[in-house]
Amino acid sequence: MIPGFVTIYTDKDNYKHLYFYPGVDDNDEPIYRNIELPNCQLKYDKNINDDLSIDYKFYDSNIIRITCNLVKLNDETDVNILNFK
Hints:
Elements: E1 5-10, E2 16-21, E3 44-48, E4 54-58, E5 65-71, E6 77-83
Antiparallel strand pairs: 1-2, 2-4, 3-4, 5-6
């Protein structure tokens, strides 16, 4: 088992990123559902990696906080509030 997680970071060009890894359980199945941003008003690019992690690059440099509701495949929800420093 590899736990899933979400984190944020600012790259060298001052773009804000949300990095999500869904994790895998003992049966090599994802733990969390993919993040969806259907109502996001901000411009962003999405890069899906071979390990199923997703890196979202936002073009609004004024972002100070991102709230994520991570939903497990069994519908349990973990809320993460991430602040840029």
